[in-house]
Amino acid sequence: MDFSNNRKDRRITKTQKSIKRALIELIEEKEVFQITVKELSEKADINRKTFYSHYRRNIDDIFNAIDQDIALKIMRIIEKYKVARIDEISFFIRLNAMINENIDFYRKLINASYYSFRFNATKKLLKTVFVEMFHKKSKVDKDELNLCAEYCSSGIISIYLEWFHTNSKLSLNDLAILANKIVTNGINSIENLASKSIT
Q: CA-CA distances (angstroms) from residue 43 to 14, 20, 94, 185?
């Protein structure tokens, strides 16, 4: 085993985490376009040369890296279902575990006005994976499947974004149960909730 490479990898990961953390702290204070590489580097306690060794062009590269990291983590969750049937509740439990690893980071990131729109990329990833997985497993028309995947992926992303944006009192576990009901039962889940509140 090459321990020097392991140490190098850990240093890279640590530096990148420090840069991302510094960016999140700064976007709580000001708009992204107001943040300079110099200011970000100082906040992360690195020099500009170190910044450019990790992110070649500008601050937007950090957001691209965050997008890729989120997409990769979701891909790893979905990979588990390539052979077996998707068990929706376990999907949400795994998604919650991913969020809980760094929930404060995700909360600050999602509540930053600049970042919210970028979750379209994550939604497209989910949609693509759903279409590819189910098209292979079933004889459903791909156009119909495409619309169903759009509905599910949009719903999953939106419900989590709304949970963060509104500082919902629901626990992540309760959110997983609710999201599972919505994805499984669609519009009927709203009717079921309404009927429970009446009784």
A: 14, 10, 33, 47
Check: CB of residue 124 under 8 Å from CB of residue 149: no
Angular region, 198: left φ>0, alpha ψ -120 to 50, beta rest = alpha
Which residue type does 71 have? A
DSSP secondary structure of 159-195: HHHHHHHTT-SS-HHHHHHHHHHHHHHTTHHHHHHHH
pLDDT tens readout for residues 103-144: 988 888 888 766 666 677 778 877 887 777 776 666 667 788
Tokens read off for 76: 């790893």
Would the pTM of this model clear 0.85, i.e. be above it?
no
Nearest in space to 76 (alpha carbons), one of 121, 119, 125: 125
Q: Which helix (H) or strand (E) holds 10?
A: helix 3-27
CA distances from 50 to 8, 12, 17, 59, 122 (A): 14, 10, 13, 13, 29
Tokens 């970042």 sit at which residue? Answer: 115
- CA dist 195 → 93, 172, 179 (Å): 26, 24, 18
Q: Enter the tokens of residue 161.
A: 């974004």
User: How far is it, in rounded angstroms, from Cα 73 to Cα 107?
Assistant: 17
DSSP letter at 86? Answer: P
Residue that the structure tokens 């419900």 belong to: 159
